[in-house]
Structure formats: C-alpha cells, structure tokens
Amino acid sequence: MTESTLAKLFGTNGIRGKFGEDFTLDFVSDVCLSLASFFNKGPILVGYDGRESSPIIAKIVCSSINSVGIDCHITGLVPTPCLEYATKNLSYAGGIMITASHNPSEYNGIKPVFHDGVEISRKDELLVEDIFFKKNWISNNKFGHTKKEERAIETYINDIVSKVDPEKIRSQKFKVVLDLGNGAQAVTAPKLCQKLGCEIVTLNEEIDGTFPGRGPEPLPENLQDLSDKVMESKADFGVAFDGDGDRTIFCDNNGNILSGDKSALLLSKYILEKNPKSKIVTCLNSASTIEKIAEKNSSTVIRTKVGSVEVSREMALTNAIIGFEENGGFMYGLHNYVRDGAMTTALMLDLLANSTLNLSDEVATLPKTFTKKDKVQCTKEESSKIIDTLKKTNYRVDETDGVKIIFNESNWVMVRQSGTEPIIRIYAESDSQEKLDDLLTEYKEKIKSILCR
Questions:
Q1: What is the distance between the alpha carbons of residues 231 and 66, in angstroms, rounded to a whole number?
Q2: Non-local CB neighbours of 274 within 8 Å, separated by 6+ positions
Q3: Residue 188 and residue 82: Cα distance in Å, rounded?
C-alpha cells in the first residue's frame, strides 16, 4: 500500500486488505512500527482471530514492536471483545487485534485498541496515519520481548457472568443453539453458556479460517441451518456470531431470524426499564423505534456516523449504558464500550430468565418497525457521484454520513459508501413491509441508473 493508492489507512473499522496483495508483511510491519510509536510504551497486548494468515501476521506484529524496545504479550486466538476487555482490565498500554471481522477469508486486518479497551478514536487514527506516511518511528537500542498472556479468556468470561443474574439463568435450564461460524467465539461462547447452565447445541464449531460453514458474516440468507436446528432441537433461541465474535444475530424459538435492530431494541427496552434516565448511542442508520423506547424510560438517544468506533467513543465520552448498530453489534457500557457477541448473548439469557414470555413473544411486544438493507458494487469515485446526485431532492436531507433522505419520522432511506469494501450500502426504514420493499427497490434502481450514465 502506498499513500497515493490508499489515501488513508483506516476504514470504518480498523485497517483491512487482501493478505499478500495490499496487506503484505512489509505493510504490516510498517503499520506496527507506527502503532508502537503512537503507544510509545508497553506492554502491548496482541490477539488474533481464526483466519489462516492471522498467526503469521501475529509474529510480524510482535517482532516489529519488539524491534523498537517495546514488550508484547500475546493472547493467542480470541474474539475481538476478549482482547479489548483484557487490554483495559489487565492494564496494558494498548492492544492490537488481528482480524478482518466479517470480510471474506482472503482478507485480514489490524484493529488498534487504546488502553481504555476501546478502539482508538478517529483523531488518533489520523495521528497513526501521519506517523506511517512520514515513517516517523521511534527507535531504541534495546529490544522488547514477547510472552504469553494466559488470563484473557477466563477474566473476560467471569466479568460477563458478573454482569447478569447467573443463578436465575441457571434455574431456567435454557437450550441454546450456537452458530459459531467457524470463528473466534468458538473459544469463549460455549464456555460462557455452559457456565450459565445452558444446554448447548453447536453449528460450525470448528475454527477454520476459510469459513466453510456459512461464511464469516451472519446474514439472514445464510442462517437457514441455524433456524432449522432451533426448531429441530426445540431450543429457546439460537445465535450466530461473525468471524471475530463481536456481533450477534439471533433466531427466536419459532425459527425466525431477527434483524440486528430488532434484538438491539429488545435488549435496550429491557436494560432501560431497569436503568431509566440513561443514554443510548446508535448510528444514523438504526431504526427510529429506539427514540420511542428511550422516551418511555426518560432516556436520551445520541446518533452518530456509521461505525463501531463512532458509537464506542461517544459512549465512553457520555458514559452511555447502551450502544448498538443495525448489523448486530451491541454494546453494554457496564461491561465495556465495545461490541461483544458473548456479552450480548448473556444479556439475552438474562432478559428471558426475568420474563414469563419466550423470545418470539418478547419481540411481539416491540413497536412495529420495518427495516432492510442492500448494497451495490461500485468504486469510491462512483459512490461520491451517487451521493452527490441523490442529495438533490426536495425532501429533508442529513449529510452527516453519506446521505439520509427523510420523508417523515419513520420513513427514510440512507446511502453511504462502505468503509471496508468497494460497495455502496443502502438502508431503509418504513412503517409497512410493502412501503419498505418499494422504497429499497426504488433507490437501488436510482443508484444503478446513476452508475450507467
């Protein structure tokens, strides 16, 4: 990668690229020298997901940081939220997670974590980029060392258990289907659920960096096996994780796959009823229903640009109790201000343990909302052209992140360039399924028409 071809290092969520192409070992070394110079002290905690290239990259990360006199401790294979929790609570100067999250298997990436356990801010990303492009690296006539960090998984699971009512959950003897997606939550989610007294049924439990089961991203179209297994085993619910284990998509007891928005609204309602007068942070592309739920509980909603970094950093700044994204990323501030698949699963168990309803009936108590998203392949330049064209409208427009065209409170469409892939994303909300489908179709056709000009 060069400055001219890349323009910037960071996307919406860390630094990613195709391993061996634009994400080479030389590039990784330069990035880590820049991060070592940014942190300027150690030890730095390093963890990685189950991708085939991750252990190779981990060696380069540690040796590069050691070369400028800073110590590294390595967790081995862990979910991203486990690395983030350990960075904060085991007193590290910073953390580096090697992951490309939900990207295809040929990708990998680096996600830097500040000493507070949250991904570094956009402002700090610019500092790292400045160091990288100027090669303004620190030097040291001594070498650092690398050793194993053995405490990360146990302390992570124990803290999650402490944030719910374990005895009440155990008394319910829940049956849960875990679709581990051949990813990193395979080392933590089963242990957590067993510790909470659940009977577990697993799918795609073998860690495999090629993600042969259903791919690294849990999407409704690839979760039919989860739905079938929930019904077949008569489970209380199912949950699917993404590749690095920070996002969850739930399946109710009737086999219905819940959108990330829907499960987030349900958990938010539960948490706010116990913690009124709280703050919730979510992105501009999340359902408007959260404002109604917050209002009922004398709470405040803060909207941000799309991206977990935006939500996490705003949570930390405002001491918010809840943060979420529409893609299944849920953040519980009493644990850590980051997306966490295992913590979210424990919260769902806690909700059901304190309810007389099953999950499908709980979902039915939510205000009706209809949301959907789609995407179109295009370059960054084409994305800019699309957004510039769409914002020329007589409807109310929000240009905070791409363009959000607002027809009324519960009917809108939002179009933005992806920060991780060469695509443009389309999000929509409406007050009926028919209107929603029409809205999404209309704007997808508009985008294709603009691309053909």
A1: 51
A2: none
A3: 9
> Considering only CA atoms, which of 200, 338, 341, 360 is closest in space to residue 266?
360
Q: How many domains does the chain have?
A: 3
**Cα–Cα distance between 303 and 285 in angstroms, integer?**
9
Pair of tokens at residue 357:
């309803």
Q: Both 339 and 407 in a single domain?
A: no
- What letter would DSSP give residue 403? E
Residues forming beta bridges with residue 417, ordered by sequence position: 424
Q: Say if residue 404 is in the same domain as residue 292.
A: no
Torsional sign, CA 272, 275, 278, 279: negative
What is the spatial distance between Cα 242 and Cα 94, in angstroms, rounded to a whole number? 24
Q: Which among 3, 9, 11, 6 has a CA at the least distance from the CA of 305?
A: 11
| Residues 12/145, Cβ–Cβ less than 8 Å | no
Annotated catalytic residues are 101
- How confident is the model over 115-162, as pLDDT tens digits? 999 999 999 999 999 999 999 999 999 999 999 999 999 999 999 999
Report residue 368's pLDDT band, with 50, 70 and 90 as the boundaries: confident
Task: Give the pTM.
Answer: 0.94
Please state, in angstroms and rounded to a whole number, the distance separating the CA atoms of residues 316 and 177. 32
Range of the domain at 123: 3-150
Domain boundary among 150, 184, 199: 150
Question: What is the maximum span of the chain, computed from C-alpha positions, in angstroms?
Answer: 67
